[in-house]
Specification:
The chain has 5 domains: about 100 residues, Rossmann fold; about 70 residues, 2-Layer Sandwich (Dna Ligase, domain 1), CATH 3.30.1490.20; about 140 residues, 2-Layer Sandwich (D-amino Acid Aminotransferase, Chain A, domain 1), CATH 3.30.470.20; about 120 residues, Glycoprotein, Type 4 Pilin (2-Layer Sandwich), CATH 3.30.700.30; about 70 residues, RNA polymerase II/Efflux pump adaptor protein, barrel-sandwich hybrid domain (OB fold (Dihydrolipoamide Acetyltransferase, E2P)), CATH 2.40.50. About 30% of the residues lie in helices and about 30% in strands. The chain has an 8-stranded antiparallel beta sheet. An 8-stranded antiparallel beta barrel has the order 24-25-26-27-28-29-30-31, surrounded by 4 helices. Helix 5 crosses helix 6 and helix 13 runs antiparallel to helix 14.
Length: about 700
């Protein structure tokens, strides 16, 4: 077994590999750019080597810089993580030439499967069904338009060396094909150093389901069941789960066997993933093979109990797989939510800055739950029907950041992967809901509210999802969550009880009264989400009963004290977790994706508040504001130009993704305040209109 390995990556995946290596007794080496000098993976590793400036194309994807770090530290093997050099055959070849093990597949397999065009040809020859498309490379935008017309719209324009949703565009007409070709080409060059592009038919209403395979160098290949990855935005996965709620055992077996056959056909070893598009009739088509560890691998680990990083290391060291296909269990259900540094209220555009608060929910394991459940069972008279008495599931958070750390504009916006496990899908979803409500992040825009909204969406709960789920359910973008009446009343009851506790604290601190509990009023009006609830509170030593005028009273119990930013309560016998912020006359409360300004008034204050005029936001309708920190790549119009609705105005690049800003309506450009090459902050004015 290796004594020292180098991780040629950064962020959460570098931290994740370090954890397994440490458990196996293997020393680790981190590499870091200027931007990552104080990063978590650098702190965790036994050694760390500086490899260059912040941009990835000057550090993390420069092969010679990684090779120099290997030479300096004497690392015997390199784990590439995902992205960067993980599927670069030149890197694997350089390691082989230096006598250093690559913790991944052979160079030949990377070359054959890493190239999307070649992999489709091999898959077809191996008997794997494939999506129709143009198998050759495309020279320019006009050729892309011609081929797209021949294949038939809609088409997917893809980078041959792509992955992670980068270098991918869907085109529904000639204009979109022309524009998408150039954007895909630019992104592919920036992300992978390879701008080759091809086109294939876009299958409408598909599910994205992938098979995890694992193979050793002794002829053993197995599949570790499937992952459902259909919840995507801009072709980038947002939520994944294992197993899929859609597959039946027969389809699962057929997909697994084809994935293994494909892996064997190219002499594959290590962990890899074969991705399929699956239609409503469970017909499946080969999409691509990722010759690396996938971002979403934790959900497979949670349902199988197999550490994929450990297996990759063992295979690279020449060991045989210690299990066969029949030994691989499928226990329970797991879900992964990707926490991105992006603002869902601004079209999910990237957000950068300092994490003024970063407090994930406490992690648990199946062993710890079992131990707690056994203890609870001994104390309980009621049977548990074979399930742990503790209703909580497993919580796992793979991350590469820390409170006070900086989210950089140079890298992928994903900062954590929150995973939960339950005995069934409903339990995994409920555990995820609570975990998301308990996850505190401040200082940057983030997608936690959106993730919570998905967990409560009826279609997701029913497993009725496709890759078009987000586009169909939020066609105008995400604007927040409106809580249903039942949940709103529970939050109102909690807010009233919490406000009473805060008032008691305030009067106690002021020293104005001795018997403060009798002086604090019992009648209040709670206002939230545009609704007012008159309530009265009967308090005792263990909690408060909140009485509504027109519905049954709700019992509220909690150990929350003023100043705490997370409140765990029991309201009407059900758990409720709230993120708490103080505002004048009440709280900012966040739960289940809703962000609520909650005011708690005395009855007289409520009467006066109703007379106050509404403050209107400033008019920015004649301004094009920069939606995120980024680099202006291109300005498409000039002062005096007449623009039409939907016309491209400029392109902003952030976190390796190009974002085209378009006119919302017809107008005339009055002034352009930025030019190509400018770095802008959020809400900087790019141009003005008459």
């Amino acid at each position: 077994m290796f004594k020292k390995i180098l991780i040629a990556n950064r962020g959460e995946i570098a931290c994740r590999v370090i954890k397994t290596a440490r458990r196996m007794g293997i020393a680790t080496v981190a590499v870091f750019s200027d931007a990552d000098r104080n990063a978590l993976h650098v702190r965790m590793a036994d050694e760390a080597v500086h490899i260059g400036p912040a941009p990835a194309n000057q550090s993390y994807i420069v092969i010679e810089r990684i090779m120099e770090a290997v030479r300096q530290t004497g690392a015997e093997a390199v784990h590439p993580g995902y992205g960067f050099l993980s599927e670069n055959p030149k890197f694997a070849a350089a390691l082989a030439k230096a006598g250093v093990a690559f913790i991944g597949p052979p160079v030949g397999a990377i070359e054959k499967m890493g190239d999307k065009i070649t992999s489709k040809k091999i898959a077809s020859e191996a008997g794997v069904s494939t999506v129709p498309g143009h198998m050759g490379l495309i020279a320019d935008a006009e050729e892309a338009v011609r081929i797209s017309g021949e294949v038939g719209y809609p088409v997917m324009i893809k980078a041959s060396a792509g992955g992670g949703g980068k270098g991918m565009r869907i085109a529904w007409n000639d204009n979109e094909a022309r524009e998408g070709f150039q954007s895909s080409k630019n992104e592919a060059a920036a992300s992978f150093g390879d701008d080759r592009i091809f086109v294939e038919k876009f299958v409408t209403q598909p599910r994205h389901i992938e098979i995890q395979v694992l193979a050793d160098a002794h002829g053993n290949t197995v599949y570790l069941h499937e992952r459902e990855c259909s919840i995507q935005r801009r072709n980038q996965k947002v939520i994944e789960e294992a197993p899929s709620p859609f597959l039946d055992p027969e389809t699962r077996r057929a997909m697994g066997e084809q994935a293994c056959a494909l892996a064997a056909a190219v002499g594959y070893t290590s962990a890899g993933t074969v991705e399929f598009i699956v239609d409503g009739a469970r017909n499946f088509y080969f999409l691509e093979m990722n010759t690396r560890l996938q971002v979403e691998h934790p959900v497979t680990e949670l349902i199988t109990g197999i550490d994929l990083v450990e297996q990759m290391i063992r295979v690279a060291a020449g060991e045989k797989l210690a299990f066969g296909q029949d030994d691989i269990a499928m226990n329970g259900w797991a879900i992964e939510s990707r926490l991105y540094a992006e603002d869902p209220y601004r079209g999910f555009l990237p957000s950068i800055g300092r994490l003024s608060k970063y407090r994930p929910p406490a992690e648990t394991t199946l062993d710890s739950l079992t131990t707690r459940a056994e203890g609870a069972a001994e104390r309980s008279v009621a049977p548990t029907n074979g399930r742990p008495a503790d209703p909580a599931g497993v919580v796992r958070n793979d991350t590469g950041v820390f409170e006070g750390g900086e989210i950089s504009m140079y890298y992928d916006p994903m900062i954590a992967k929150l995973c939960t496990w339950g005995h069934d899908r409903a339990a995994a979803i409920e555990t995820m809901r609570v975990a998301l409500d308990s996850f505190e992040v401040e200082g940057i825009g983030h997608n936690l509210p959106f993730l919570s909204a998905v967990m409560d969406h009826p279609k997701f709960v029913a497993g009725d999802i496709t890759t078009a789920f987000i586009a169909e359910e939020w066609p105008e973008g995400f604007t927040g969550v409106t809580l249903p009446e039942e949940d709103l009343r529970r939050v109102a009851a909690a807010a009233a009880a919490m406000y009473r506790v805060a008032e008691i604290r305030r009067t106690r601190v002021s020293g104005r009264m001795d018997n403060h509990e009798r002086k604090v009023g019992a009648d209040w009006v709670v206002e939230l989400q545009g609704v007012q609830y008159p309530v009265s509170i009967d308090a005792d030593r263990t909690g408060a009963t909140v009485n509504f005028a027109d519905t049954p009273a709700m019992r509220v119990e909690s150990d929350w004290t003023p100043g705490q930013t997370l409140a765990r309560l029991s309201v009407a016998g059900a758990a409720l977790v709230l993120k708490v912020g103080k505002i004048t006359g009440g709280f900012r409360l966040r739960s289940r994706g809703a962000d609520l300004s909650v005011r708690v008034y005395s009855p007289r204050q409520a009467d006066l508040a109703a007379l106050m005029p509404e403050k209107l936001p400033p008019d920015t309708s004649r301004l094009l504001l920069c939606p995120m920190p980024g680099l202006i790549v291109r300005i498409d119009v000039e002062p005096g130009d007449e623009v039409q609705e939907g016309q491209a105005l400029c392109t902003v690049e952030a976190m390796k993704m190009e974002n085209t800003l378009r006119a919302e309506r017809k107008g005339r450009v009055a002034r352009v305040n930025a030019s190509a090459g400018d770095n802008l902050a959020v809400d900087d004015v790019i141009m003005e209109f008459d």
